[in-house]
Design goal:
Blueprint (H helix, E strand, L loop, with lengths): L1 E2 L2 E3 L24 E6 L37 H7 L1 H12 L4 H13 L3 H14 L4 H13 L3 H14 L4 H13 L5 H14 L4 H14 L2 H14 L6 H10 L2
Parallel strand pairs: 2-3
Helix pairs in contact: 1-2, 2-3, 3-4, 4-5, 5-6, 6-7, 7-8, 8-9, 9-10, 9-11, 10-11
């Protein structure tokens, strides 16, 4: 989700032993964040699950994908009515519907409030104003991702890549969408993660996700290779020990 913004972590529930996935969230613009495991902004990407959270739906701090349409998101107007910043941003954006920055600002605020329907509304305006703006497209992809609409999210990540082919955040999150689908397409996810590595062979998120996906697939060879590469890139990677443990526990 970002070039200068905040990077967030979105866990992908795998449903196997102690598996976990990482997704970036890096990216540019009004809604993003730097690499790590903090709450992400609309333009960030999605990281892996902590080994200790294996089998858990999502890691702490991440919007609950399965209930994205519940809670605050079920009544976005209520959120706006009770949040002064959201109210002001909404009014400003509605007064000037052709002002790209105001639409992005409103979308960012509603995204943070988990009012994804409202965020989508303003992002749609932004995308219509600037159809090739990578930040707006990535933000829309992240919003759809958090709403559980992984197919639509993938389409927006692909649009980001059409204008920014080297965007590793969008590329890795595109892979994540294949893991989150029902049924998941694990092989396709690995293919997408490998595209990230072609851009940046030292991308930790992609290496982590390849290893975790391969473990879920039962392909120890691919998992071992990714884990070894990850150890070379960062021997202190916080997920490395868990990945190794999962690999050794497989028959």
């Amino acid at each position: 989700m970002n070039k200068n913004i905040l990077l967030c972590v979105i866990g992908l529930a795998l449903g196997f032993g102690a598996g976990f996935f990482l997704a970036n969230k890096v990216t540019g613009g009004m809604i993003a964040a730097p690499v790590a495991s903090a709450p992400r902004a609309a333009s960030d990407s999605a990281p892996p699950l902590d080994p200790d959270q294996a089998g858990a739906p999502l890691p702490p701090g991440h919007p609950d994908v399965n209930s994205a349409s519940a809670g605050n998101n079920s009544n976005p107007n209520g959120v706006a009515a009770t949040n002064a910043e959201a109210q002001a941003a909404m009014e400003a954006a509605d007064r000037a519907p052709r002002d790209f920055d105001l639409q992005m600002n409103a979308a960012t605020i509603f995204y943070k409030l988990k009012a994804f329907d409202k965020a989508t509304l303003y992002l749609q305006r932004a995308v219509e104003l600037k159809p090739k703006d990578a930040d707006a497209l990535l933000a829309m992809g992240n919003t759809k991702y958090d709403m559980g609409d992984f197919i639509t999210a993938a389409s927006f990540y692909e649009r980001v890549l059409a204008v920014q082919p080297q965007n590793t955040i969008a590329q890795t999150d595109l892979g994540n969408t294949y893991l989150q689908r029902e049924p998941p397409d694990i092989k396709r996810a690995i293919e997408e993660y490998r595209k990230t590595l072609k851009i940046n062979p030292r991308d930790e998120m992609a290496l982590q996700n390849i290893a975790a996906a391969a473990l879920r697939l039962g392909d120890k060879s691919i998992a071992r290779e990714a884990i070894e590469q990850l150890a070379q890139v960062n021997p202190n990677n916080r997920y490395l020990e868990g990945l190794r443990s999962n690999l050794e526990s497989q028959p």
